[in-house]
Design goal:
The chain has 834 residues and is α+β, with helices and mostly antiparallel strands. It is built from 22 helices and 43 strands. The protein has six domains: 68 residues, Phenylalanyl-tRNA Synthetase, Chain B, domain 1 (2-Layer Sandwich), CATH 3.30.56.10; 124 residues, OB fold (Dihydrolipoamide Acetyltransferase, E2P) (Beta Barrel), CATH 2.40.50.140; 191 residues, Phenylalanyl-tRNA Synthetase, Chain B, domain 3 (3-Layer(bba) Sandwich); 67 residues, 2-Layer Sandwich (Phenylalanyl-tRNA Synthetase, Chain B, domain 1); 219 residues, Bira Bifunctional Protein, Domain 2 (BirA Bifunctional Protein, domain 2, 2-Layer Sandwich), CATH 3.30.930.10; 86 residues, Ferrodoxin-fold anticodon-binding domain (Alpha-Beta Plaits). 25% of the residues lie in helices and 26% in strands. The strands form twelve sheets. Strands 29-32-33-39-38-37-36 form a seven-stranded mixed sheet, with helices on both faces. Strands 3, 4, 5, 6, 11 and 12 form a six-stranded antiparallel sheet that branches. Strands 14-17-20-21-22 form a five-stranded mixed sheet. β7 and β8 form a beta hairpin.
Length: 834
């Protein structure tokens, strides 16, 4: 959250050096952990001056519009004595055309002379001929100067507030610069002028004038209050102002500061409430006393209870919502927003002021539940000063009476007391040891005292009691950070600590990196997709209603209602990436992704408190319901796998390419796998292979079903594979087999075997490989079907390479190995072709 800080307002509370530039102030606050987002200024350049209307002639135009032809005294340095047709040219002045009618002769106005640039309009003012006269400038409205209002009414300055020719930028306060500061969530105190001023005083070592130093009456009762949930509302105060005049306007200086801080000026009573919130950081609320019925009660909502908030939205409340209520029902969601039916209006004369401290998590949950991000809730949910309520309500009451008349009724109703700040104990040398900066005990104590902490030093031990406005200081390391903030983050040396000795990458890490290299070497481009999916994704993959892949881990707050859960297959994201790339004109797409899929285990997750660390048993119960999250590798191939070139023809990617990449991956990981024909959507039933390792199916590869391709808006053949990388890594040997090289010559044998057409090639190849230790490799080089071998059969031709590690093979060795291979093939239904 950001806080807009007008520098002139800031200077009222801290004695900043007079010659301090805005840039240096912003740089020091940024170094003090109040990061500058933007320096905001009016941006007005050129001669913007105060003028007095000397004469005004109304002239009706042919278009029905009436304009004012004015003579304006803009001071001796700017008047033009040569204005020939201005009314009353006996006095040096400027003639100006104006279409607004809310001013008369003798009024002080704001004039932008030729050469003035107004950012609100986006152009530079110049003299021009219009409505039959030469208009030598422009009389300005608030909208034209970017300070609110509309263009139908020009600014009329109070009499004697300035003289003609004075710099209007200074008169209107447009020379004030505003710092837009980013405030960290744990520094709610800095969402106020008081908090920023205190930090600025510490940063520059200058005096701080606390605007909360107010003598607040605290005896007697004002308006009756009952708190039914003191844990959620430790402190609640009320104060009453009577006889207020609702017609009184907000002072210009107050309205300007509220608008500079990024809020809108509404009415005097509302503006005073907002002004004190910005000044002190205490959210508050003002109720019309005449609209209240009975005592104010702080309680939890009942199921189904409703409230119409100030934004005119009717909301159904939750029993966890903390309410401000009276006999009529809810009059506000505590710390978030009030109800519309008790708001202050133009008839309000008696006001009840509420200032309270609410439990931050309670406010946070209500604000999120009802999607209300009010200025009050943003402060309450971060933790405000719990000792400020009485003084803040007194400040509001005094400003209401000062500018709106009336009387502050005697007494203050206060229910509850501010909680005590916890004591933080630490060693005095802890800041130096943690930061590596030479910070002595005196510096530690002075830094903490400057922040309002009570500090006791006993030898080498510190006892620190944080101030009421610093709920973020809770443990010794919070204190260390606060000391370093004062000393300066720039004092920390930019020296990296020596890395401890390690054991290098784990087996899984090494093999995952090796797998990545294999995929890159296969020409695949790695992509990363969002791990979210929905029913439409599974429909496009053709998954049946009872497919286990439709069972998802659902998200509490998904990015898209169409993708409400975590994906169970990488193909959902890869197919979206394929569609995107094809749609952008890429005809050949070969992509891969390595990522997790999520499979729910079932059961509700236990919720533990934050007051202690979970036990071993509680951790186990939590882990038991976490989803399985194995790492998968997904592959999608579309278009040409081999490009056309000199002497080569293009080749489209197909099912064999997907299987070949999986085989290559298994070979590099030294994992023996089996490839078997299967039917498994979204793959084509006749062009799908299941990948088996150790008897367990770890993935599938092949060609996607044509219907799946069509449902994704694609055409042609799309090959894909998805395998469980964790399963491959688990099956891989720790170091892989030791490389061995034989220096003896290789022998070659070819076998032609006849098998039934439905026998997988891999079944026969595996039998051949396991038939003899002398067989080094088995390669299928031909498949034949036809009349010569009969219907329902096929001929498989294999090239066998044989070699021994310790000798040259003899004819007998070769004959024995060949016979063994034939016998092994016969065992799986193959016969030697004659």
């Amino acid at each position: 959250m950001s806080m807009r800080v007008p520098v002139s307002w800031l200077r009222e509370y801290v004695d900043l050096p007079t010659d301090l530039s805005t840039e240096n102030l912003a740089a020091r606050l940024t170094a003090f952990d109040l990061k500058l987002e933007e320096i905001i200024s009016s941006g007005i350049t050129g001669p913007l001056v105060v003028g007095r209307v000397l004469a005004l002639v109304k002239e009706e135009q042919k278009n029905g519009k009436t304009i004012n032809w004015c003579r304006v005294d803009v001071g001796p340095d700017h008047n033009d004595p040569s204005t020939p047709d201005a009314p009353g040219t006996d006095v040096p002045s400027r003639g100006i055309i104006c279409g607004a009618h809310n001013f008369v002769e003798g009024d002080l106005v704001v004039v932008s002379l030729p050469g003035t640039y107004l950012p609100a309009l986006g152009f530079e003012i110049g003299g021009r001929k219009t409505y039959g006269h030469f208009s030598d400038g422009m009389i300005c409205s608030g909208a034209e100067l970017g300070i609110g209002g509309d263009a139908s009414g020009i600014i009329v300055l109070p009499e004697d507030s300035a003289q003609p020719g004075d710099d209007a930028v200074a008169v209107l306060g447009l020379d004030d610069v505003v710092l837009d500061l980013e405030v960290n969530p744990d520094r709610a105190y800095a969402l106020s002028m008081r908090g920023v001023a205190r930090d600025a005083a510490i940063a520059f070592g200058v005096p701080f004038h606390d605007p909360a130093e107010i003598d607040a009456e605290s005896s007697g009762d004002a308006y009756p209050v009952r708190v039914d949930d003191p844990a959620a509302c430790p402190v609640f105060t009320s104060r009453v102002v009577t006889g207020f005049d609702p017609s009184r306007p907000t002072p210009d200086w107050m309205a300007r500061r509220i608008e500079q801080a990024g809020m809108r000026s509404i009415s005097l009573a509302v503006d005073v409430s907002n002004y004190v919130m910005l000044e002190l950081g205490q959210p508050n609320h003002a109720y019309d006393k005449a609209k209240l019925s009975g005592d104010i009660v702080v309680r939890r909502a009942t199921a189904g209870e409703q409230i119409t908030t100030l934004d005119d939205v009717e909301r159904t409340l939750d029993p966890e919502d903390l309410l401000i209520a009276d006999d009529s029902g809810p009059i506000g969601i505590a710390g978030v927003m009030g109800a519309a039916h008790v708001e202050i209006d133009q008839n309000t004369t008696d006001i009840v002021i509420e200032a309270a401290y609410f439990d931050p998590p309670t406010v946070f949950r209500s604000a999120r539940r009802h999607k209300i991000g009010s200025e009050a809730s943003k402060r309450n949910e971060r933790g405000i000063d719990w000792a400020l309520q009485a003084r803040a309500s007194q400040r509001i009451a005094e400003l209401l009476v000062e500018h709106g008349g009336g009387t502050i009724e005697s007494g203050l109703t206060q229910v509850g007391q501010a909680p005590a700040s916890p004591t933080v104990e630490l060693s005095v040398d802890l800041p130096a040891r943690i930061t590596g900066v030479d910070i002595d005990a005196i510096t530690v104590v002075e830094s903490l005292q400057a922040n309002g902490c009570d500090v006791e030093l006993d030898h080498d031990k510190l006892e620190v009691v944080p101030p009421s406005w610093r709920p973020d200081l809770r443990d010794p390391y919070d204190v260390v950070e606060e000391v370093l903030r004062v000393v300066g983050y720039d004092q920390v040396r930019s020296i990296l600590p020596a890395a401890p000795g390690g054991r290098g990458l784990t087996k899984a890490q090494r093999l995952r990196r090796r797998a990545g290299l294999v995929l890159a070497g296969a020409g695949l481009v790695e992509v990363k997709t969002f791990p979210f999916a929905g029913p439409a994704d599974f429909d496009r993959l053709g998954l049946s209603a009872d497919d286990e892949r439709r069972s998802q881990v659902l998200l509490e707050n998904p990015l898209s209602a169409e993708e409400p859960g975590m994906t169970t297959t990488l193909l959902t994201g890869l197919m979206r990436a394929l569609v995107l790339n094809v749609g952008r004109g890429h005809s050949d797409v070969q992509i891969t992704e390595t990522g997790r899929v999520f499979r729910p285990r079932g059961g509700a997750s236990p919720i533990y408190g934050v007051d202690r660390a979970p036990s071993v048993e509680e951790f186990a119960a939590f882990d038991a319901v976490l989803p399985d999250q194995p790492i998968h590798i997904g592959i999608v191939l579309s278009g040409d796998r081999q490009k056309a070139g000199w002497g080569t023809q293009a080749r489209r990617a197909g099912w064999a390419d997907a299987i070949a990449i999986v085989r290559r991956l298994a070979d590099v990981l030294h994992v023996p796998l089996e490839v078997r024909q299967a039917e498994y959507l979204p793959w084509h039933p006749g062009r799908c292979a299941e990948i088996v390792v150790g008897g367990q199916i770890v993935g599938h590869a092949g060609e996607l079903h044509p219907r799946v391709v069509r449902d994704h808006g694609l055409s042609g053949v799309v090959a894909a594979a998805e395998v469980d990388l964790d399963a491959l890594v688990a099956a891989a040997p720790d170091l892989g087999p030791k490389p061995s090289f034989s220096t003896f010559p290789v022998a070659k044998e070819d076998l032609a075997l006849v098998v039934d057409a439905d026998v997988p090639v891999e079944t026969v190849a595996a039998a051949l490989r396991g038939s003899s230790d002398l067989i080094e490799s088995v390669r299928l080089f031909d498949v034949y079907t036809g009349d010569q071998i009969g219907e329902g059969s096929k001929s498989l031709a294999f090239a066998l390479r044989l070699r021994a590690a310790d000798r040259t093979l003899t004819d007998t060795d070769l004959a024995d190995a060949r016979n063994a291979a034939v016998s092994a093939a016969e065992a799986v239904g193959a016969m030697l072709r004659t």
